Amino acid sequence: MRSATTHPVARVAARAGYVISGILHLLIGDITFRIATGSGGEADQNGALKTIADTTWGSVALWVTAAALAPLILWRLAETILGLHPSERRDNPEDREIGNRLKALGLAVVYTAVAATAVQYAVGSGKSGAVQNAGLSARLMHSPQGKAVLVVSGVVIVVIGSYYAFKGASRRFCRDLTVSPGRVVTVMGLSGYVAEGLTLAGAGALVIVAAVRADPSKATGLDGAVKTLAQLPYGTVLILCAALGFVAYGCYSLVLSRYARM
């Protein structure tokens, strides 16, 4: 497996996944901006994929999206087994930490879910992420064990979101690059990670609230977290900030496609 990760083709294929991630986040940012201006939309990966599906060559683009994510999924699985940045010859103990392996596994699961959703939209069976989340939550709420699973899932999402926000605020994301980032890239990474993290943490909190109140309509994922901002003071401003954050994260993902440590 280690020899496979050192092959140039494998690295180039994995980097293509960052391009897809960047495009999806740019679309999520656009949808979030339209929500702020009253145009509606679904501010999550499902909404971004639906936007692609509605274009002239949408089905082809979705199949390309799923195919491009496959190498990045395999790369994250390799990182889970071998440690972060397996193609690098230097041995950095920090890259071998169990926490980093778990993060790599989590990203592999996320990318797999996005690829699977892309295939669903490509074959015409895609559904709203909010509807899927609420439906799954409703089924789990039928038993105490299911509610416990929801609470644990919510806590995990909050922890992941909090880590993303911390990674952005502390600029730890700079360690993922092979070059020293300039001011523009640093601002993109900082604002992108913080916005993504806080929104994820909000989505996890909604899952916990849904489980405690036995109200599956609250567990609507990232889209629900974005739209919940509208109910807060200065909600429109907060949604616009989230939109800019998603766009910044998308741009940073495009930078990763060229300069990510592999």
Task: Describe the structure using short key phrases.
262 residues; mainly alpha; 10 helices; globular
Can you offer a commentary on this structure?
The chain is mostly helical and 262 residues long. The protein has one domain (2-259). It is built from ten helices and no strands. The chain has helices spanning 2-5, 8-36, 45-53, 58-82, 98-122, 129-140, 144-169, 183-213, 221-229, 235-259. The two termini are 14 Å apart. The model has no long low-confidence stretch (mean pLDDT 84). This is DUF1206 domain-containing protein. InterPro entries: DUF1206. Keywords: Membrane, Transmembrane, Transmembrane helix. The chain crosses the membrane at residues 12-36, 56-75, 104-123, 148-166, 187-212, 232-256.
What's this entry about, in short?
The chain has helices spanning 2-5, 8-36, 45-53, 58-82, 98-122, 129-140, 144-169, 183-213, 221-229, 235-259. By secondary structure, it is mainly α. Residues 16-81, 105-170, 192-259 form the DUF1206 domain.
Radius of gyration: 18 Å
Largest sheet: none
Secondary structure tally, helices: 10
Secondary-structure class? mainly alpha
Spans where pLDDT lies below 50 across 5 or more residues: none
Strand share of the residues?
under 5%
Question: Mean of the pLDDT scores?
Answer: 84
Report the principal-axis shape. globular
Characterize the quaternary organization of these chains.
single chain
Number of strands: 0
Element-level helix/strand string? HHHHHHHHHH
- Report, as a whole number of angstroms, the end-to-end distance: 14 Å
Percent range of helical residues: over 70%
Tell me the domain tally: 1
